[in-house]
Amino acid sequence: MSLLVVGSVALDSVETPFGVKDEVLGGSATFFSTSASFFNPVKLVAVVGEDFPEAHVQFLRSRGVDLEGLIREKGRTFRWKGKYGYQLNEAQTLDTQLNVFQSFSPKLPESYRNPTHVFLGNIHPELQSQVLDQVKSPRLVAADTMNFWIQGSRQALLQTLKRVDLLFVNDAEARQLAGEHNILKAARAILGMGPSRVVIKRGEYGALLLEREHIFVCPAMPLEEVFDPTGAGDTFAGGFMGTLATSEKLDRDTLRRAMVMGSVMASFTVERFSLDRLRELTQREIHARFSEFKRLTHFEDLGPLEG
Question: The organism sits in which domain of life (predicted)?
Answer without folding.
Answer: Bacteria
